[in-house]
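re: ur question from earlier - yeah i can do the single chain one, its not a big deal. heres the input i used so u can compare w yours
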Amino acid sequence: MGARLAAITDVIRERLERHRSVFTRIAASGVAAANDSADAAGKLAQRRTLAESDYTNFMRAQLGVIQRVLSELIAPSHGPDSFRIASALQGLRPAVDAGGADGMAIPHGCMLNKVDSLLTMRQLENGNVADILQNARWQKHLYTIGPRVARIDCAADVRKRSGDFIHAYGLRKVSNKDYPDLVRAVLPCFSNTAAALGDQALHALLPRLEQTLGDLVKLQKAHRDYLWRLQDLSE
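and the output i got, formated as tokens:
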């Protein structure tokens, strides 16, 4: 079931443009076969007039390509199918076979939303500069309330540097470009923390922090991984 609050031709155009956008993202993620499907949807969406038959013909022609592309995207080697895209594909096939534009548009849109969410999740797993301030807050929190961490000699310095960064960030006196300076300044305490807690896994994460200081996205992820491990040790 799905609500349609526009004329079917408007829905069709939106689905085609959405298909173009999502399949362009899939191609950029490494599944090259998605390119042709994205191009076909984009060209069709640019037509001045669209009929329901244009959309249904497109979906019938593209169903095999969609199945191959998404099967590659959710292959077990890429991790779990967290958004149940395989199930969404199963819902799309009978709708395409039935032949109605309305019936196709609903599962098509559902499938595209799931794929878009999966691609975004995978992208953010590699690091997200939008979470840099969150990392600073999380760092301050762990070195403040962690019963084992807060007692480490350098914890007060981490709290102060984190607090200063958070305050200055709010006043726009510092920005993401100053984030590597914060991480660089607390790295000695991170090393002391790993030693004090006697955790080899925590210690093993330190070289990646140093290696990624020149890349904000990778640094955010490396820092996040360190903080996750520290939180596990603090609980």
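Residues 8-125 form one domain. not sure if urs matches, ping me
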